[in-house]
Amino acid sequence: MASPKSSTRPTHPEPTFHDFFPAMAGKLGGEGLIDELCKGFELLMDRDRGVITFESLRRNASAVLGLGDLTDDDVRCMINEGDFDRDGALNQMEFCVLMFRLSPELMEASRCVVTEAIEEEFGDRTHRR
């Protein structure tokens, strides 16, 4: 029996992701964080359409964020990830929701808050009967 060939592909370390969103939320508070997200949206949006389009993200990701090495597929994937209404662009709400979804710590904290609220609401109702 022949032995399986070993893979000769080079291995690359996983990129390190630092989630600064929780620290920002703690420092700025809820309203301050939303204000900052809205400012970020305005930096990336197409001024004529008022949304983030493929073209505006492509242009501004390089100029504003320093992400000039993004491929067209990368930019499309970024738009598609948050484009809930499937119009090919991100409106301000979609952008803000996407930013929260991309923060594992904030998503977990949100789940805990929602779970507690549901338990309080439904727990109170079941005890009243």
TrEMBL record:
Organism the protein comes from: Brassica carinata
Gene Ontology molecular function: calcium ion binding
Protein name stated in the entry: EF-hand domain-containing protein
InterPro entries per the UniProt record, alphabetical: EF-hand-dom_pair, EF_Hand_1_Ca_BS, EF_hand_dom, KIC/PBP1/KRP1
Alphabetic keyword roster: Calcium, Metal-binding
Taxonomic path: Eukaryota, Viridiplantae, Streptophyta, Embryophyta, Tracheophyta
UniProt superkingdom: Eukaryota
Keyword Heme: no
Residues in EF-hand domain copies: 70-105
